[in-house]
Fold this protein.
Amino acid sequence: MMSATSTLALTHFVTLADSFDKDKVTPGVLGFIVFAVIGGAVWLLMKSMNKQMKKVNFEEQPEEGEAGTTASAAPAAAKPKTG
């Protein structure tokens, strides 16, 4: 059995449902929650990526004048040992 207040509340929802356009699709609360979770995940991934990129120790290639000294040492170290 329904009480008078619940019946009155349901009649208000029924009138809202009748005025609702059934051809219009909206994302609703679930769409907002999914969008917010995806946004939060992207933010956390970007924060983690920035943290990892700060750890990278990048050194540029030596300039032309310095290339001769390092290039001559590299082939000597790369020779395979035989026997």
Observations:
- The mean pLDDT is 76.
- The helical segments are 4-19, 28-55, 64-78.
- The chain is about 70% helix and 0% strand.
